[in-house]
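S2.1 Query sequence (Hydantoin racemase)
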Amino acid sequence: MHILLINPNSTASMTSQVLESAVRVAYPTTRITAVNPVDTPVSIEGGADEAMAVPAMLSEIRKGQAQGVDAYVIACFDDPGLHAAREIARGPVIGICQAAIQVAMTISRRFTVITTLPRSIPIIEDLVSAYGANHHCRNVRAINLPVLGLDEDPVEAERLLVMEIGKAKQEDRAEAIVLGCAGMSLLCDRLSAATGIPVIDGVTAAVKVAEALVGAGYKTSKVNGYDFPRVKSPSPVSSMEQVGNLA
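Output structure tokens follow.
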């Protein structure tokens, strides 16, 4: 099977990192390729960044459709454009936030999400609610480090994450930790070993979910909600011409 990993931001080093994380857990028979657009924000930190990243991400999925890709992983924890992506893809499209939350609910009763900046907390809280995990998610925390800071100072990032995981265990009584950024994926095993609690990375979780769905023969439903977008003919008269005619 062929899984396409899409990093919606334009930072190539992050794309390489998430690809490394994905290949490490994939079956030997699974082919994984990774792409990132070049005309999107260098990191996705908020709704405006998400909106600017989605069109190019959808373009990559359309290319994947033509190449016979079996499944797609959106490697951004905000799951930007997830529903739109499912409309244009025939194979499964997995968001790393949704995959990580589903894994967390399976291996623990209560979990905490730890992300980068405080501004991401409301976005993740809304996703937790949308995925039906309010009762299971104890807290969404932030280490107050920008996404690019994970790559620029990995030692400090790991130190901050270890501290925040300790607080989540003590104050939230969390039984598992979800890392709330794709850029944290390579730290997963070390953090779990250092803190003694299961630490879940959404990239690896999404890859294994994608493998399972493709292996079972499941595809995205094209009945109603996720049907392919309707083809619309362009209007023969532009909006500016209409204004002129009305005047």
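The chain has a mean pLDDT of 93. The longest helix spans residues 47-67.
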